[in-house]
Amino acid sequence: MRLHDAALAAGLDWSAGHLVDGRRVQPHGEREITVVSPRDGSVVGLLAAADRTDVDQAVRAARLAFEDGRWSRLPAARRGEILIRFADTVAAHAEELALRIAIEMGKPVREALDVELAAVAGCLRWYGQLSDKLADENPASPGDALALVTREPAGVVAAVVPWNFPLTMTAWKLGPALLAGNSVVLKPAEQTSFSALRLGELALAAGLPAGVLNVLPGFGPEAGEALGRHPDVDVLAFTGSVAVGRRFLGYAAESNGKRVWPELGGKSASVILPDADVAKAGRTTAWACFYNQGQMCSASSRMIVHRDVADEAIAAAVEEARRMRPADPLDADAPSGALVSEAHLARVLGHVRGALRDGATLAAGTAERFVPSEALVRGSYLAPVVLTGVTEKMSIAQEEVFGPVLSVLVVDSTDEAVRLANATPYGLAAGLWTRDLSTAHTVARRLKAGSVWVNCYEEGSMAMPFGGTGASGFGRDKSAHAIDKYTDLKSTWFQLEPR
Ligand code: NAP
Ligand code: MG
Questions:
Q1: Are residues 234 and 379 in the same domain?
Q2: Which of 45, 62, 340, 404 is at 20 to 30 A from 383, Cα to Cα?
């Protein structure tokens, strides 16, 4: 059976209002979001976009929920139980959510289910289980006093997220923000509004009190900016592009000085040294560039390979490009699916054509759209591209493509590899392939990146923070460190009566 048949037969409801104060409400905003499936170009549904008034109402609902303590003053262990039940509820509805994501943004439904939804449930459960394991601080103090350092929830958190891992990025914000006792207003990317609204409903079904999570579909420059400038939002957690992340820093500076946590783009390198398992390195580097149709902030979009092993690594990458050919995202065995939209496909193709004009060569793929079948002729597909002959100064070696386009840069020494790996404004992630223990440690330290993967790529656990340096921003999702973003430290000094 094809995975989607059962869910399609059950029928998904795509009608929607916004989710504010525990209810579906019709927004005031008059503009409409048209959600188009990049799978086949069909219209999935329409929904009204939030305007300034809608944002204001959602922030008010979140503030009220925060102040009356329905969530913020529950014992942390109780909040943890509800987060765990939220995780279980997501897991129970994973197939439906995966199907929505596949239709909305084009990733293979199997990947949405096995990777994205597993990550969402895993993240919520991880924070839920952390709830009764955190401790406050009791610094040394004189005998007639007691010093306490406690964590207080910040208050109202706004989360503005992208469409590429729409519910994973959301869960990375919700887990720590909710665990800490905050109320949240979520603005999903317009393309993935329906799955976000459904996630909000499942939170309510799991017992999250009304008003603690509000979901407000809308356009970035309207609803996103209104959240960024809102005087009653305490924290703005953002994942998305560098340009928009910097706007949020500006909105905050021009409004109430709220904390902004930007988690932005990347141009990550995978460095392959001559003593590596070259076939595996080439294959994995390509996979980690093409996965999710290349729409990954941490994509290994630059293969930096030593000349001695370049041919073998490129051959492995080309082979992987063939294997990752797009197919119908609703096929259970599709290795990759559609890019998010026609506009995005056009942007990615522009990058490829620019690279060819600059002198790069196609080792795999073409600078034309891919058509998986007659039925999907209006979908937004691109077969993975491997570009050789790329040099440091070309735009393709510097700019984030956010598509399945791998640039190969050949080097003659480890030092040159490190210098090139660090030669972009970004600093999100890096891969390193070597069998030498000392080289692994010394080179990993020299790579400018928030995450370094040695002899692998995209591995990790919820216990490890994820985020970048430089132009990639400075926010960190995942791990206990993420709780810092959504809490304030309070120092309380108790003066004791002399006995
Ligand atoms: P984006 O264009 O920056 O959009 C992200 C969010 O910001 C969306 O919800 C968008 O709303 C909103 N937005 C757009 N313009 C805005 C404005 N002027 N004011 C306020 N909000 C605004 O990014 P994207 O295209 O969705 O996602 C791709 C980017 O995300 C890539 O650069 C990728 O590297 C990055 N990313 C980073 C990470 C990480 O953890 N570091 C993870 C995933 C993705 P609408 O689009 O709905 O209008
Ligand atoms: Mg967008």
A1: no
A2: 45
497 is catalytic: no
Q: Looking at the predicted structure, is the pLDDT value of residue 3 above 80? A: no
Name the active-site residue from 263, 289, 320, 400. 263
Specify the pLDDT at position 156.
Answer: 99
Are residues 226 and 194 located together in one domain of the fold? yes
> In total, how many domains does the chain have?
2
How far, in Å, is the centroid of ligand 2 from the Cα of 243?
12
Query: 225 is in which domain, residue-wise?
Result: 6-264
The larger pLDDT score, comparing residue 45 to residue 366, is at 366
Grade residue 29 by pLDDT with cuts at 50, 70 and 90. confident
pLDDT at 388 over 80: yes
Best probe residue, ligand 1, of 244, 339, 451 (max atoms within 8 Å of C-beta): 244
- Residue to probe by mutation, ligand 1, list 32, 192, 216, 239, most atoms within 8 Å of CB: 239
Percent of all residues in the chain with a pLDDT value above 90, rounded to a whole number: 95
163/241 same-domain check: yes
Residue of 81, 95, 222, 297 marked catalytic: 297
| 7 pLDDT more than 70 | no
Question: In the predicted model, what is the mean pLDDT of the chain?
Answer: 96
- 406: tokens are 């791998």
Helix axes 94-105, 166-179, angle to 10 degrees: 130
- Candidates 133, 129, 20, 23; CA nearest to 85 is 129
Pocket of ligand 1 (CB under 6 A): 160-164, 169, 187, 189-190, 219-221, 224-225, 228, 239-241, 244, 247, 263-266, 297, 400, 402, 428
* CATH code where residue 446 lies: 3.40.309.10
Q: For the sheet with 405-411, list strands across it.
A: 361-364, 385-388, 405-411, 302-306, 269-272, 429-433, 451-454
Q: Is 297 a catalytic residue?
A: yes
Label residue 140 exposed, middle or buried (CB < 10 Å: 0-12, 13-18, 19+). Answer: exposed
